[in-house]
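We emphasize that the prediction below concerns an isolated chain of 405 residues; any contacts that depend on oligomerization or on bound cofactors are therefore not represented. The input was used exactly as deposited, without trimming of termini.
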Amino acid sequence: MDKINKLHIGIYGRRNNGKSSIINVLAGQNVAIVSEIAGTTTDVVKKSFEITGLGAAILVDTAGIDDSGILGEKRIDKTLESLKIVDLAMLVVAENIFGEFEKELINEFQRFEIPFFIIYNKIDISPLNFELKNQIFEETKTFIVEFSATKSKNAEEIIEGIKKIVPQSFFQQPTLIGDLVKYGDIVLLITPIDVEAPAGRLILPQIQVIRDILDNDCVAIVLKEREVDAFLRKTNIKPALAITDSQIFLKAASSIPTNIPLTGFSIVFARLKGNFEKFLEGTPQISKLKDGDKILLLESCSHHVSCDDIGRVKIPRWISNFTGKKLEFHIVAGLDKIENIEEFAMVIQCGGCMITRKQVLNRLKPAIESGIPVSNYGMSIAYIQGIYQRAISPFVKIEKHEDYL
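Result of the prediction step, given as a C-alpha cell string:
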C-alpha cells in the first residue's frame, strides 16, 4: 500500500473518555496529548503506525463529540468532517454512559457506511455494567472491547477488532488500465515537461500509471508531446493505448492515429477514484451553463500556484471561452469543508491522485445529493476541446452517449 491508500482508522467519543490515551497505546508512543481535563484534543490529529497483517495505517484522533461553546461547535464540525476520510471507526465509551451523543455518531457511521466497533475504556475505574453491555449490543449489533488505557493489557483485542471489520475493498488493488490492455502491450504516455512539472521528477499520476503498466506485464514508453510524431514515424510501433496529460489533449489527438485508443491521466483516475457514471452525466452540462453561474473546482492537495495553473487559471479560462458566459469560479483545496454547495451550478474535481477513492466519493457526495452536475478536470478539458468521445471511448460504449461532443 502506498501512503495515500493507508487504512484510515477514526477514534470517536465524548471528551475525556480516553481516546488519545488509546491512540498512544496502539501507536506505542505518546503521539497525542492526554490529560484529565476534558477537551484536551481540540482538532483532528493523525498518526501513522503499523498493523501486522494489514501494513501501514493512520490513526485519526478527534475532538470530543460532546464539546460545547462556539469553539466546541467548530471542533465537533471537524470531528464530523473526518468521517469522510476514515475507513473504519472505533467508538470509545466510558463510565457506563451511552446516550444521544453516541447514538448520533452511530447514525453518522451508518450514513457514511463506516464499519465500527465499541471500546469500553477505563474498566479499572468503572467496569462495564451488564445491562448497559446488553443495551449497547442490541442497539449497535457490533462487538465491545473492554479496555483500560492505563493497564493496556488487552491492546491486542483492539487490533483484532480492527482486523475483523476492515472493509474488503481495502484488500482489493484496483487496476488503472489492466482491463484495457493484455500481456506485452505497449502503452504510450505523453508527458509534457513545462513550468508546472516538478523539478527532476514526474507527477504522481504518471508514476502510478507507469507502475500499473508494469504490474500488468506491459511496456511503458514515455515521451514529451513534441517527440510523438517522430517516434511513431520512425518506429512504426502501434501502441495498444495512449495516455496524455489533459492540458495537451488537442496536440495528442492530432499526433495519435484515430485507430489507437487515447485518453488522459486525469480521466484514468476519474474512473478509478471518482463516481465515473456521474462524471459522464455531468460533464456535458458545461454546455448548459448560464451567465452568473458559479463553478466549484476541487483540488485534492495544496500546492504552489503557478501563473498558468491548470485548476485556477486554465480551466476557468477554457470554460469561459467555450461557453461565452460570464461565470464565477471558486477553488477549494485539500479536504476543507464545502460551504453552501447548493449555490453552485457545477462541481469539477481534480484527478484525486493524492487522496483515496472514499475521500473523492465523499467529497462529491453533497453535490450529487443536491442534484448538482459533477465532472473531472480531464473530462471537462476533453469536452471543451471537442474530443470528449475519443477520450472516454476506452471506458464506455459511445453509442450509449450520443449526446456527447
